[in-house]
Amino acid sequence: MDAEPQGWIVEAVPEGVDPSVPNVARMYDYYLGGKDSFAADRAAAEQILQLFPDTRHAALENRAFLRRAVRHLVDAGVDQIVDLGAGLPTQGNTHEIAPRARVVYVDYDAVVCAHGRALLAGGENVSMLQADLRKPDELLERLAGLVDLDRPTAFLMLGVLHFVPDEEAYEVVRRLREATPAGCHLVVSHAIDAKPDTTPEALEIYRKATAALHLRTPEEIARFFDGFELLAPGLVHLRDWRPDPDLDDSAGVVSIGYGGVGRKL
Ligand SMILES: C[S@@+](CC[C@H](N)C(=O)[O-])C[C@H]1O[C@@H](n2cnc3c(N)ncnc32)[C@H](O)[C@@H]1O
After folding, report:
1. 248 lines ligand 1 (CB under 6 A)
2. For residue 119, which of 136, 141, 94, 140 has the smallest C-alpha distance?
3. Which residues contact 52 (CB under 8 A, 6 or more apart)?
4. Alpha carbon 234 to its chain's center
5. What pTM was estimated for this model as a whole?
6. Which residue's alpha carbon is at the smallest distance from atom 12 of ligand 1?
7. Which helix (H) or strand (E) holds 155?
8. How much is the average pLDDT of 199-224?
9. Cβ(87) to ligand 1 under 6 A?
10. Rg, Å, the chain Cα set
11. Residue 195: C-alpha distances to residues 48, 62, 158, 201, 255 (Å)
C-alpha cells in the first residue's frame, strides 16, 4: 500500500480485499469526506472529481435525499426497511433516522460489512447482511430470516442500481416487488449522464474499479417503478424531491442524481 497521508485511518487489509483496485464503496466514502479509503480509492476518486467537481455535492445530495425519503417512510408507518447497497456507515444512517424500525443493511462488500457490523454491534433492531443483490433468490431467502416479507417493507436502492447492468437491474427490482405485498415501498436514486463530454473518461475509471458504472436516462430509471405508484413529486432531480432546507445544502450544484419513492399497488 502507498504511504498514507497523516490523518487517514490505516487498518489491516481484510482477507480477500485487494487495496490496489479502486473500490466503489470507498470512493463514495471519500466523496462524502470519510476516512475509510486506501490510496487507490482516493486516486480514482480524485480523477472523477477532476472530471466532475460536483461529484462531492452529488454524494451529499444523495444522502440528503435518503434522509428525507426515510423520514417519509417513518411518517407513513413503515417499520421494516432493507437498505440495499448500503455503503460504509456515514452520518445519517437509515437506522438513525428510523430508530423504531427494523433495519437490515445489505452490501456485497467485505469492508462495508465489517464496518457496519462494528457500528451496529449490540443494536437489537438492526443487522448487516453480506449479500449480492444480483442474486435475488439467495437475497430473499436470507432476508426472510430478518424481516417479515409478508408485511409492508421498504427497499432502499440508493446509488446502487447504476452498478448493475442492463436488464439484470430491472429483474432484481421485479423479484423484490413480486415477493412482497401491496403497500411495500421502493426508494431509488440513480446517476444520469449529466456531463456527456466527460462521461467516457469517467466510465473508464469505474471500469477499472470493483464495479462498472451504468448510467441510465430518467425514462430508463422510471422503469424501475413499474408496478409501483410514484409518490409526489414523482421521479425528479434528487434535490427536488420534497426539499427541506434544513436537510439539504445542494442548491446551485449540478445534479447528477435522479430519484423517487414508489408504493406497491
Ligand atoms: C455509491 S455506494 C451507495 C451507498 C448508499 N446506498 C448511499 O446511497 O449513500 C454503492 C454501494 O453499493 C454496493 N454494491 C454495488 N453493487 C452491489 C451488489 N451487486 N450487491 C450489493 N451491494 C452492491 C457497493 O459495495 C457500495 O457500498
Report:
1. no
2. 94
3. 194, 195, 198, 202, 256
4. 19
5. 0.94
6. 85
7. strand 154-158
8. 97
9. yes
10. 18
11. 12, 18, 20, 11, 10
Cβ of 238 below 6 Å from ligand 1:
no
Pairing of strands 126-130, 185-191: unpaired
| Encoded amino acid at 62, one letter | N
For ligand 1, atom 1, name the residue with the nearest CA: 159
DSSP 48-94: HHHH-TTHHHHHHHHHHHHHHHHHHHHHTT--EEEEET--S--TT-H
Total number of residues shown for the chain: 265
- In ligand 1, which atom is closest to the CA atom of 132? 20
**Whole-angstrom Cα distance, residue 184 to residue 174?**
13
Per-residue pLDDT tens digits for 107-123:
999 999 999 999 888 78
Protein residue closest via CA to atom 20 of ligand 1: 132
Give the separation between CA 131 and CA 67, rounded to whole angstroms: 23
What is the tens place of the pLDDT at every residue in 39-80?
A: 999 999 999 999 999 999 999 999 999 999 999 999 999 999
Q: What is the pLDDT of residues 74-87, one digit of tens each?
A: 999 999 999 999 99
CA of 14 to the centre of ligand 1 (A): 18
211 lines ligand 1 (CB under 6 A): yes
